[in-house]
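pinned: reference chain
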Amino acid sequence: MKKLNFLFYLILVLVTACGEKPMPSEEKLERQSYVSTVSQLERDYFVFLPRGYDDDKQKVWPVMLFLHGNGDRGNGKDELDYVLKNGPLYEAWIQKKDIPFIIIAPQLHMFGFDQKGIDYIDNRSPAEIPRRQADGVPPRPPRFGAPQALQRQASVSDMSEMAPLLPMGWDKLEADLLAMLDAVHENYRTNPEHTVLTGLSYGGFGTWYLASRHPDRFGAIAPVVGWGHPDLMAPIAESRLPLWAFAGGRDGAVNIQHFYAGLQKLEDLGHPDVRFTVYEEYGHDAWVRVYASDDLYRWLLDPATVP
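pinned: its structure tokens
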């Protein structure tokens, strides 16, 4: 017994001497409740806490507000888990990708879209919602596929007859989204100067809108597969808000033809760095490529992007 105790002590001394660091604390996914100014009903939103959040009580973390796409709408309660299907929250929580941001992920109200005969809403099932596994990660769902030809399409230069926003989108939740940001900054260890905004599809349109309305609230934005209307660009250009937009070259839902007018407007207004990436081989789910890679997160964490 004495030999075993001595052996244990020796191993402990050797491990300590080698300076091995303890494992960082695990990620957490919390729900926070709020009363929506739109419906006057209580709803929830997700707050993801990154790996290591619990270790250093003095450390502050950057914040990412993520706006999902049209198919993940819901009641903000038992349907909130649909928000886990796509985007940075899917990568961080389901695929266990180390994304060192506190992620705020709300759910867009249904606003009657479940009465419009939209297949991907009417026929969705809780069985589609990915689950975090104790060990390992689940396989990724198959890509959408892109029947469109792999070819460049002519840009639309005049968008004066096009509405700047999609119907019943994230603009309706403007007050709620700002209140969520305020609550997270108050209740978690955040860096308010390093708050970024990103969204996909409907959330990409919402990203352009919220950035146009409140460019001072964000250090950078990344709208994904959602174009920005030229009418929204003046405040973004004036504030020189760092931005990186993404599109799928074969996107049949949000056509790449409509991305260029807004981006050109930014340049015309003097924005110094309009960053735009097109994944030519992808369709509407180009967001998978965007959020699964490291490029966007590195850019958002670069002091040259957000000082």
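why pinned: The longest strand covers residues 190-200. The mean pLDDT is 93.
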